[in-house]
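Issue 218. Parser rejects a valid record. Input:
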Amino acid sequence: MPETDLKQQIIERFREINGDHPMTEADDAYVNAQFVVLEELCAARGRDAGATRRLMLERRLPLPGYLRSDGAEMVPADLFALADRAGGVDLLEAWFTAQWADPIAGEAEWNAYLSGQYVCLHSVTPATIQRKEQLTAAIGAAVDEPDAGSAERTALLHALVDELDALEPAFTAYDRLRFGGPTSRDTCIDDVRARFPRP
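Output the parser choked on:
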């Protein structure tokens, strides 16, 4: 299949998942700082861009995290890292899903990973996915505790928030459009810090 057809299929699949929202100059600047162009990453890693797009379309590697306003497919610099850790693309799904004790949860996370929407983590691994889930749940519970405003509780809450802050990038306005509302950084980091300021 010609390279242009593969790229068009990636664009169509991306928009099926994320909707068709405009990328602003600010969005592009954010993405340029956080991600790399697919072709550039493939050239640097000795990979074929067309073959990589086929793996994405075959649901064996995740889709790009963003489409820049010029159509460039933007991917994380560590796009191939998990496949390498698993022993190759053919072994990736089994390795990835086995990181969850519940096979149904593992399959759900695999599908989420393939969507390319895990732009909420600096490094997307089963460990960071699980830790983010634990932290957001713990933060959500902590803010509703009866003594949530006490000095001790506030200190514990900020420790959770600081750890989540280290895992997550800043996000951009485009993310709030495609996800249909505030991001986890908005609700679990920025809002919590505003509601429970440090002493």
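Fixed in the parser; the record now loads. The longest helix spans residues 126-142.
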